[in-house]
Design brief:
heterodimer, A: mainly beta, 0% helix, 52% strand, B: mainly beta, seven-stranded mixed β-sheet, globular
């Protein structure tokens, strides 16, 4: 049972464009939704995270949009740069839960110069 | 650099063998989490320790075990290794006992021949 579904599997965006990655979750007990960025040969690095009490959070060029009723959240990368080329993972967890992070399958993002 | 360290970086061994992976959390973090990353299963939570005590178990096989020592470093022991155990193993740490805001180490790549 895949509790967090991520799409697309891969994405190619032109430099300066907007990259959009979507995730949907099933467990309504989830209340913490982070995004991680992973470069080849490195560990996942926390990018930005959101809780259900807000519908949007922005940090620099990265924005999370959250739709609680639809059980969906998305990552928007504005003015995408070649250095943003990486694999992005959405995740979810329950605060106070004892399950660890549940990850999506990842999106391989390529920003073309 | 997340502040989480893992050794060794690479490990090559044979089927049936036993290996130990080591992780040192960020200074001040009391929780350590272990994750397995493989191409087919993605990133999967294995187990969490908080201040020396096991707190949560995920998809960890009975052949695998972990512990956290008084100095808070953790070890993941993998025994009776099979070809399918070949994967990247990540350690993450967080301040408290809950799942939020985890920082990942660089990982150990295990190859079972």
């Amino acid at each position: 049972q895949q509790q967090v579904k991520q799409s697309p599997q891969s994405l190619i965006v032109q430099k300066g464009g907007i990259s959009i990655i979507n995730c949907a979750y099933e467990n309504t007990a989830f209340d913490y939704f982070p995004w991680y960025q992973q470069f080849p040969g490195k560990g996942p690095a926390l990018l930005i995270a959101i809780r259900p009490d807000v519908s949007e959070k922005k940090e620099g060029r990265f924005t999370i949009s959250f739709n609680k009723s639809a059980k969906q959240f998305s990552l928007h990368i504005m003015d995408s740069q070649p250095g943003d080329s990486a694999t992005y993972f959405c995740a979810a967890s329950r605060s106070g839960g004892a399950d660890g992070l549940t990850f999506g399958k990842g999106t391989h993002l390529i920003i073309q110069p | 650099d997340s502040g989480v360290t893992q050794t060794p970086k690479h490990l090559i061994t044979a089927t049936g063998q036993r290996v130990t992976l080591r992780c040192s959390p960020r200074s001040g973090d009391l929780s350590v989490y272990w994750y397995q990353q493989s191409l087919d299963q993605g990133l999967q939570f294995l187990i969490q320790y908080y201040n020396g005590e096991e707190r949560a178990k995920g998809n960890i096989l009975e052949r695998f075990s972990a512990q956290q020592f008084p100095d808070l470093h953790s070890e993941l022991n993998l025994s009776s290794l099979e070809l399918g155990d070949s994967a990247l193993y990540f350690c993450a740490s967080s301040v408290g006992r809950h799942t939020d805001t985890q920082y990942f180490g660089p990982g150990t790549r295990l190859t079972v021949l």
